[in-house]
Specification:
alpha/beta, 2-enoyl-CoA Hydratase, Chain A, domain 1, two-stranded antiparallel sheet, 10 strands
Length: 277
């Protein structure tokens, strides 16, 4: 007997349907349907249009760090609610649930192709990777550790900017992180900044843009004020590639645009150059 449209599926059918849905993903760039297995193997880069989808912090660490070398630091540094901002505590809880992390930035030490470094990686799933006092503190501490150990530091940024729920406390992190970066420069400790989609506003205007070398992933949104803000300010119509990694490369804000598959090897070559290895 043929089932009607609203007949309930069996548990086996539901599991089979879930498995089938998990086998496919939709590209955010070209909107094409991709095999999930091929998508993961290609490091979440569309093999049709080359769109670089966002990577969680743990996955990017696994991509860059040599196996079993990453040792996390400053796990205890997490956000508080100093201003009692409405719904901020709920947003922090949601950020932890979405990312599986205690904060939007993961820092630690590892090796890249055998070269010891300090590594910091942001996660957009935690409140858009926004920078509050905890993120700024973790970045500053990572830089200070690099200064103490004379190890190069690599920071992978993704952020919508400073965290408004902390007011001036979040804006102060811009000065704090830039001051820490200046100390690295004075001591000759290499700092490589990697901009991923998106890197915007207060993060771009502070530590993300002051590396000795600034790398960006293809197509990453990189800028200060978003396009909606620019539209409200009645800015003249921008070019088609405005606020992309490629636009910033053309205008000298980025040194090189590197596909994800080549990122670790590019970092290795830069680190060898800086360390004389």
């Amino acid at each position: 007997m043929q089932r009607g449209w609203f007949a309930r599926r069996s548990r086996a059918e539901e599991l089979a349907l879930d498995e089938m849905n998990d086998a496919w993903v939709k590209c955010n760039g070209c909107q094409q349907i991709l095999f999930a297995r091929d998508f993961e193997r290609n490091l979440k880069v569309c093999n049709r249009c080359g769109h670089h989808h966002r990577l969680p912090a743990r996955e990017r660490i696994a991509l860059l760090a040599d196996a079993d070398t990453f040792v996390e630091r400053d796990v205890e540094v997490v956000s508080d609610d100093p201003l009692g901002f409405p719904e901020y505590a709920d947003k922090l809880s949601k950020g932890k649930a979405n990312s599986g992390l205690p904060e939007a930035m993961v820092t630690g030490t590892c090796t890249i192709s055998g070269i010891p470094i300090v590594l910091a990686v942001a996660d957009f799933a935690f409140m858009g990777g926004s920078m509050g006092s905890a993120v700024g503190e973790k970045v500053a501490r990572a830089m200070e550790h690099a200064l103490e150990t004379k190890q190069p530091i690599v920071i992978c940024s993704t952020s919508g900017g400073a965290r408004m729920q902390e007011g001036l406390l979040s804006l102060m992190q811009m000065a704090k992180t830039c001051a820490a970066a200046a100390k690295l420069q004075e001591a000759g400790v290499p700092y490589i900044s990697v901009l991923t989609d998106p890197t915007m506003a207060g993060v771009l205007a502070s530590y993300a843009s002051v590396g000795d070398v600034v790398i960006a992933e293809p197509g990453a949104l990189v800028g200060f004020a978003g396009q909606r803000v620019a539209a409200q300010a009645q800015v003249v119509k921008p070019p088609p590639n405005f606020q992309t990694a490629e636009f910033q490369l053309e205008h000298g804000m980025v040194d090189i645009v590197v596909p994800r598959k080549e990122l670790k090897h590019t970092l290795y070559r830069l680190l060898r150059f800086f360390t004389g290895g």
